[in-house]
Design brief:
about 150 residues, alpha/beta, Rossmann fold, 4 helices, about 25% helix, about 35% strand
Length: about 150
């Protein structure tokens, strides 16, 4: 496991960092996003999506629960953006039918609020912790589970 800590001072810097992170992805990764409301989780996913050439708006999946973004970047064809904040138990995960997407080698999955459902059946390849600091600054810790 390796941890790297970054500090960004704007949404643009957060998206740029996410774009650099995107270059390390090959498909099949599950990435947990941890952070309070407004800490930059969706901005981070937006930066990855833009790095993969996605040009439409990237929105928080708070109300939709799951957003899928088609991309064409090397072996990656889809970004899956999931927000578990509103779920109450593991049975609701089954209804979302995420397992097939999460097993696809051409998909990169970002899961916000992964610990809201204690029985979550997935383990992360990477954990990205985002924290808001004063005056538009964010601390971003990228934790690779295996290296």
């Amino acid at each position: 496991m390796s941890n790297t800590t970054y500090t960004t001072h704007s949404d643009q810097q957060t998206k740029k960092l996410a774009g650099e992170f995107a270059r390390t992805l090959h498909g099949g990764e599950v990435i947990f996003l941890e952070g309070d409301l407004g800490s930059g989780k969706t901005t981070f996913v937006r930066g990855v999506a833009e790095a993969f050439g996605f040009q439409d708006p990237v929105r928080s999946p708070t109300f939709t629960i799951v957003n899928r973004y088609p991309v064409v970047k090397d072996s990656i064809r889809q970004i899956l953006h999931v927000d578990l904040y509103r779920l109450k138990d593991a049975s609701e995960l089954t209804a979302l039918a995420l397992q097939e997407d999460l097993e696809r080698p051409d998909t990169v999955a970002f899961i916000e609020w992964p610990y809201v459902v204690p029985e979550i059946p997935w383990t992360p390849d990477v954990v990205v912790q985002l924290k808001s600091l004063p005056i538009g600054t964010h601390e971003i810790v990228i934790i690779r589970q295996s290296e």
